[in-house]
Amino acid sequence: MELTQSLQCLQPSYIREILAVAGDPNTISLAGGLPAEQSFPMPIFQSIMSQLANDSSLFQYGPTQGYAPLLDYCDQHFSLSPTDQSLVTTGSQQGLDLIARAYLNPSDGIVMEAPSYLGAVQVFELAQARIIQVDQTSDGPDLTQLEQCFAQHSPKLFYAVPDFHNPTGVCWSLAVRKQVAQLCRRYDVVLIEDAPYRELRFAGEMLPMVSELCPEQAIVLRSFSKYASPGIRLGVITGESHYIHPLITLKQASDLHSSLPMQALLLGLLTHDHFPQHLQAIRALYESRYKILASAIAEYLPDSCSAWPIEGGMFLWLILPTCDVNTLAKTLLKNGVAVVPSSVFYPAHMEGSYSALRLNFTNAEPEALVKAVSRMASALAGEV
Ligand SMILES: Cc1ncc(COP(=O)(O)O)c(C=O)c1O
């Protein structure tokens, strides 16, 4: 049977190819976007799960919008206004899919940072949207380009990850946040603020979300994957109810609702007395792993390779002298290190203006991080 045209155009994921090989026990993988399993709150989950098994109503069909006590928690915790609504989704990835299906007709314009999160690129490509890219600087999107792009292309949406971007780790400065909010208002562009890494700040000051600066012009995606666990598959979309209401209708047609027992489990975690310590422990673990990776890079790699400093999140962006990053990633794999080349993070037929690798530091032990960098140093010596 013939596939839809949109699916025929979708590129096979290079990341999946790399991850398949990265499972080899002799390979150190810095390729995935996986949180550390030791960060999962298993003792808390165990105690909540045994209580959930006493409540049969949680194992019945439930409301599409989400488990009511979890929605109440989100209203309060995210300080939503009375005109806002929340929708619990099966991870933020489903949130992206619902937004694309609700708001993007083929050829509608959507602006993305370049490079950008691969899962979002795929969703917007499947929607056959017109993807317009704006370069990312170490401070956030290039504002001159962004304004030109809003003025010339009249896009409907701007998709962005302002806190600890995937893949670059960039966190927008306050000045950039204010200016982007102003531009969205001036040009009537709706901001899709994707914030899965916001809670993973281990240095510097917490900054306001961009959506707080233009609330009438924004939809926010929050994920629980990075500080609860990705396997529970839960996220929440919030925004003014006229944006969220159509998404609820779509979700009903898509999967009826996200798992109720998992929503109750998540609420149990978020309201648990030990939750603040749990968050602190994840931040401390990731900070220590980031520092180990950054100092190994400084020690082993040539000066021509530079890492953008970060204050949180899960990724380090290593800028290299210009080279063929796909070939380099394959060479590194042969040398026992899996990483993701920058080419993967651009839509089809577009490419970046420089060479880089995304290194994940959250899912490797300290010794493995150091060994990975020393293996990279040997492989790079012959390549760049
Ligand atoms: C920027 C970004 N958005 C969304 C997601 C998807 O998150 P979830 O596990 O909630 O579907 C990821 C996952 O890595 C991500 O990096």
TrEMBL record:
<dbReference type="InterPro" id="IPR015422">
    <property type="entry name" value="PyrdxlP-dep_Trfase_small"/>
</dbReference>
<dbReference type="GO" id="GO:1901605">
    <property type="term" value="P:alpha-amino acid metabolic process"/>
</dbReference>
<protein>
    <submittedName>
        <fullName>2-aminoadipate transaminase</fullName>
        <ecNumber>2.6.1.39</ecNumber>
    </submittedName>
</protein>
<keyword id="KW-0808">Transferase</keyword>
<dbReference type="InterPro" id="IPR015421">
    <property type="entry name" value="PyrdxlP-dep_Trfase_major"/>
</dbReference>
<keyword id="KW-0663">Pyridoxal phosphate</keyword>
<dbReference type="InterPro" id="IPR050859">
    <property type="entry name" value="Class-I_PLP-dep_aminotransf"/>
</dbReference>
<dbReference type="InterPro" id="IPR004839">
    <property type="entry name" value="Aminotransferase_I/II_large"/>
</dbReference>
<dbReference type="GO" id="GO:0030170">
    <property type="term" value="F:pyridoxal phosphate binding"/>
</dbReference>
<dbReference type="InterPro" id="IPR015424">
    <property type="entry name" value="PyrdxlP-dep_Trfase"/>
</dbReference>
<keyword id="KW-0032">Aminotransferase</keyword>
<dbReference type="Pfam" id="PF00155">
    <property type="entry name" value="Aminotran_1_2"/>
</dbReference>
<dbReference type="GO" id="GO:0047536">
    <property type="term" value="F:2-aminoadipate transaminase activity"/>
</dbReference>
<feature type="domain" description="Aminotransferase class I/classII large">
    <location>
        <begin position="52"/>
        <end position="373"/>
    </location>
</feature>
